[in-house]
Amino acid sequence: MRPYYSLNTYLKDTYGEKIYKIALNAGLTCPNRDGRLDTRGCIFCSRGGSGDFASSLTDRSFKESIEEGKQRLSTKRTGTRFIAYFQAYTNTYGPLHYLEEIYREALNDTEIIGISIATRPDCLPTEVLVLLSRLKKEFPHKFIWVELGLQTIHEKTAEFIRRGYSLPCFEHALNALQTLDIPVIAHLILGLPGESKEDMISSVRYLNEKPVWGVKLQLLHILKETDLAELYDKDPDHICFFKDRDDYISTVIDCIEHLRPDMVIHRVTGDAPKKLLIAPAWSANKRDVLNALHRQLKERNAFQGQLYGKE
Fold this sequence. Notes:
This protein is α/β, with parallel strands linked by helices. Helices cover 38% and strands 17% of the residues. α3 runs parallel beside α4.
């Protein structure tokens, strides 16, 4: 039996082969950076806007960027199709004609099975929702996913990290996307300063009751040139919750056990550029983290949904 319903499993079950994501930087910005809400960004966000590994669309044509992404994956390719992942910054926050251009170019690529759009709940105006609905109808054999950066359900934490919107804003966006039958992937960050393990599990329980199709469980990385790094320098014990790899794995497993069994888990740890990573140092070895996670799931005889509905 599979201990959790991973994205890799979903894609293999659905498409019969391994599917890879091509991460893209569309040259957009964020209301937390351009002055609409703030100019500093969220306290954990690097200058790359969470897209430090993404291919830039501003330096070359879309086709060239896609080909660059395919080349990056060439050493581990076993399948023939891809997902175009608009990752960096806020990918519904830009001129409507430009958004349509980049989404359409991706959907027109014969090797791309669909697009995943990372954005903020407060950046889904009516005209963008109309665009997504129209493209969904025009490309019925391809998917459109929207990834919403929730991070936490706790308003005190949200204020501390400068998220810039309240929980009802997330719920409004989620309901609007559900109406359009567009799957939503919610991002949660584990290890945010001031949060306990129970706080993190509460965020998971919250998602269980919402029309959320997928979730990303992201370890908090402390990166150079962020406000979080400055706070870490002053008070490392408070800022870095998971100093030990096994503590993190134990928390991830607890979250998985509480998670609704039909929800697709897109991520259980995350990557950080080694040149930017300050802490936790153990997270730089992602393979080691994943191997330890799978080993401890087996040792605990734990699986997704084991504690769902039993709180």
